[in-house]
Design goal:
The chain has about 950 residues and is α+β, with helices and mostly antiparallel strands. Helices cover about 35% and strands about 20% of the residues. A 7-stranded antiparallel β-sheet has the order 14-13-10-11-12-15-16, with helices on both faces. Strands 33-32-29-30-31-34-35 form a 7-stranded antiparallel β-sheet, sandwiched between helices. A hairpin with a 7-residue loop joins strand 13 and strand 14. The radius of gyration is 28 Å and the shape is globular.
Length: about 950
Amino acid sequence: MPKRKDLKSILIIGSGPIIIGQACEFDYSGSQALRSLREDGIETILINSNPATIMTDPAMADHVYLKPLTTKSIVEILKKHPNVDAVLPTMGGQTALNLCIEADEKGIWEDFGVEIIGVDIDAINITEDREKFRELMLKIGIGMPPQASATSFLKGKEIAQEFGFPLVIRASFTLGGAGAGIVYDPEHFDDMLSHGLEVSPIHEVMIDKALMGWKEYELELLRDKNDNVVIICTIENMDPMGIHTGDSITVAPAMTLSDRTFQRMRDMAIHMMRSIGDFAGGCNVQFAVSPDEKEDIIAIEINPRVSRSSALASKATGYPIAKIAAKLAIGYTLDELDNQITKSTSALFEPTLDYVIVKIPRWNFDKFEGSDRTLGLQMKSVGEVMGIGRSFQEALHKATQSLEIKRNGLGADGKGYKDYEKIIHKLKVPSWDRVFVIYDAIQLGIPLKRIHDITKIDMWFLKQYEELHFLEMEISKYTVESLPKALLLEAKQKGFADRQIAHMLDCYESEVHTKRTDLGINRVYKLVDTCAAEFKAVTPYYYSTFEEEIETPEGERYVANDSVVTDKKKIVVLGSGPNRIGQGIEFDYCCVHGVLAAAECGYETIMINCNPETVSTDFDTADKLYFEPVFWEHIYDIIRHEKPEGVIVQLGGQTALKLAEKLDKYGVNIIGTSFKSLDLAEDRGSFSTLLKDNGIPYPRFGVAETAEEALELADELNFPLLVRPSYVLGGQGMKIVINKEELEVHVVDLLRNIPNNKLLLDHYLDGAIEAEADAICDGEDVYIIGIMEHIEPCGIHSGDSNATLPPFNLGEFVMQQIKDHTRKIALALNTVGLINIQFAIKDDIVYIIEANPRASRTVPFIAKAYGEPYVNFATKVMLGEKKIKDFKFNPKLDGYAIKQPVFSFNKFPNVNKNLGPEMKSTGESILFIDSLKDDEFYNLYSRRKMYLSK
């Protein structure tokens, strides 16, 4: 039966600002759903308050409302669009679902005659209300851990007495495991119980007997209205129960599950999905399996919506879950839809993988001083990476190389722990570096059985680690000249980077690279094709691996490579890797627009990125997607294979910029601003000379490489001083110090964490106003796309400041200085493309804080506020296709747009929440106001005094 004819206009609810527990995976699923509905000629109306995403781009929906996610906004939109037939709330995470439920309870959908599609409200209520969920599971014969719910402190104490410890406490109706935790003893129980009751919107907690050490699995399902169900992906958590799945290392397909148990699990998942309600769409089910021969299965939870894991499952299998789920919501059935990969079979099939994927979360504990780094039931990671390989070992190595935490993979980089006590402690108390500590433990000779007893990680995974250690030991016996080809090939097949092999052989990375290319050990590229090459796939979605040569009967030797190089002119766009504080989804927005603009200019576009949550890694964004680490070796091999006209580095944040030096050194053309100019802007000494030559004021500063030099400089510059390392993003390591003791402590700390770094010391302009400008420059003309004034004073990181567009109290004299300085700096730096400049204004003099000749965090915000595709324009300028004078700029904004940062401090209750020069916000929202008399603006401006009083 084809789609419903009565659905002509659909409202989609987005997920709002990015927070820990709900990140850009919903931008990805929402964008897919919008495209999917528009293909069917349905009018789409979107509400979302996040300006940094592709989802809120004017081109994504027929009507985009950048409004607060409240029922008041929903009513406003429905009054404007009385023709809305239905609402699809399953693409915006828990935020969208909660808003949908609230609107339902207030009778809003009924008042406006709007149907809820893609999910059943009763299904949500059953899955969120743990008591109802438990009753239903027991009724349908699905095992559950002993559990009971409590809505009072007294009831909670009674349950604990009955079950005994350890216990799991979970707060009902929360996201990312908020209010959840494992309690091992009565002393901590009271605090956890009070906290859980407090954070639950209905003041209810579920108390479970803890299944510590059980294995954890997730299944992603899709169901249509005819009750056809397909299981898209089975994901195994390498970490056992007790660590939130968002903080676990996960693997697909499942590695340690017997076929018999897998079949039982499938049947249970389908039975559960069918029993919770009658809806068509996506669903995520989590199970625990006992780690013994019996393999008992117990249900943990079910989410009747697309989830964090469905973005991962989509990228892992190539099956676009959100796109298909949106089609099912409007009445299609699976057998009527195309398999997006083969285009010749139907969507009613279950993907089969002939490769392995490993997801590793990315944490940002360094931004939350004093935070509890222990991983548990409450999610703490801010992003994730995914590695694809032909084996678990290769995929694991690729994922660790993608994390951008100054590690080259597992071990073989001289950065592992060697202290027995420390390693044992780190195994017992899981934290962000556990994936590396397991390798350190094996290197130290700690028996696998002991590691297994402590961590409860399945022996199969530990043996995979052990094999890597044995291989490293074997390679270390040789020199680069004497290393046999077979051993080098094995190391590459198991994912070791050239850099790691160089560490084992005590030689340079370039020597290993030369040796393997001389021996013909080159990367080959394979298609992610969902059907294990059973049917011909048409998607240009690749991962790399190493293979033995095949010999034909005629004696010809070759290696099978699925990536065919065309003779078209090509452009590579480097992605921004995993999300983190300081480098979030706004850079993915820029990369996607860069790709689309390059395609408009007639280039074949090639995207390199490893973040499974984003639109840039969707297989139909670029002409070719290489799902590979944004790591030198991988990028260089792709460039050698594809031979592009050049590489765009200024759209992928600091990740891509950091690779500019290597690209330049190896003679790869950097599109737009040259490496020399990028480097000049980062080098404080050279940049200050440039400012001096152009008569532009800047705060007095100096450069120090030791604590001694820093203390000497302090006498010259006078306190307060702003201290920061060079080449960092998101203000990492920045601090304002007011005396020599503070200065010495901070400098010693910085040089310990970032050795050989040059530290910049600026005289801090106390009480100054901060502003920033973004501009496009073509080498001759400069067009300022936006000037924003920060509401907080200078010294609060720009990413953590509320900022207004246009400025609200800068006089004409100051504005003219900002414009003049921006033009002069952009031209003096030979900028071709985007540039962001930050200013401090004191006594009507505009000082330069810094200039970044690249896309900035604020570009998507300005583009949304003014309704102009600035990244598209800038990319065409970078490619030399257009000049500034070729564009007709027509910004439209009535009143003001305010960028409001959003924080995730609730995940770290004991952390210092004071804001300063180091960025701490995880996301942002946009607020439009008509005038400065608006209450919201008044509240923000009055809070400014809180910072000034420090």
